[in-house]
Amino acid sequence: MTLQEFYATVGGNYDEAVGRLMSEALVRRFVLKFLSDPSYAALEQAIAAGEREEAFRAAHTIKGLCLNLGFGKLLASAEELTEALRSEMPANAQELFARVSEDYALTVDAIGKL
After folding, report:
1. SS3 for 13?
2. CB atoms closer than 10 angstroms to residue 74
3. CA-wise closest residue to 74 among 46, 41, 38, 102
């Protein structure tokens, strides 16, 4: 899979990512580095434990990474969860987390194909 195909798969904009990071080599480097970020595991653990502040922090970190890297689908679901967690643990936290999980799995799978 090319980097352009990757961005199409994850709902991102390849040209914007390259413009932001100034080269395809840097984009590829940071996309691959995404796999080592511990935020998703922290989010999963915090949601399971009902720890709103920790879940908010992890979701917010994922949102920021996705914004910088241009991962459109995961950005949208992480942003929705982040805003829902901003002041309280929402009743639909598990449902919102399930969407983040689906988008995260899609992103990780696509990175594996690069």
Report:
1. coil
2. 27
3. 102
Computed from CA positions of residues 78, 9, 70, 28, in that sequence, does the dihedral angle turn out positive or negative? positive
Note the helical H segments in the chain: 3-9, 14-21, 24-33, 39-49, 52-69, 72-85, 93-112
Handedness of CA 35, 37, 94, 45 (dihedral sign): positive
Number of Cβ within 10 Å of residue 11's Cβ equals: 17
Token pair of 111 as six digits: 């990175």
The vertex-46 CA angle with 45 and 48, nearest 5°, equals: 65
* Burial bucket for residue 20 (CB in 10 Å: 0-12, 13-18, 19+): middle
Sign, Cα dihedral of 105, 96, 88, 78: positive
Is-above-0.70 flag for pTM? Answer: yes
**pLDDT tens digits, residue range 3-52?**
999 999 999 999 999 999 999 999 999 999 999 999 999 999 999 999 99
